Amino acid sequence: MYRVYIPAMNARHYDHSKLKELRKSRDLTQDQVAEALNVDRQTIYRAEGGLTAGYDLLCDMCDLYGVSIISVIYPRRVKACVA
Fold it and tell me: What is the DSSP secondary structure assignment for residue 4, as one 8-state letter?
């Protein structure tokens, strides 16, 4: 069985400002989002700042906000490595 490794994403891969807009439009704080997703507030801060975010985190954030991941990521391929 193969594992697919998807590298962490940054501002080149997703619209980090949209994440912040989505959170604010739902009147949520970074602390509230972090608690709901069971992650550290710094993780949300880094994702919204475009520094780094894993695909799973982005999916979880989009689920929380009720939007599709497609509305946040840029239409570019992310090179996956098979390990």
Answer: E
- Cα separation, 83 vs 79, in Å, equals 13
Domain of 32: which CATH number?
A: 1.10.260.40
Give the structural domain span for 43: 4-82
Structural domain tally of the chain?
1
Give the tens place of pLDDT for each residue, 7-55: 677 778 889 999 999 999 999 999 999 999 999 999 999 999 989 888 8
Contact 77, 1 (CB under 8 A): no
User: Looking at this protein, which amino acid is placed at residue 10?
Assistant: N
Length of the chain: 83
| pTM, full prediction | 0.79
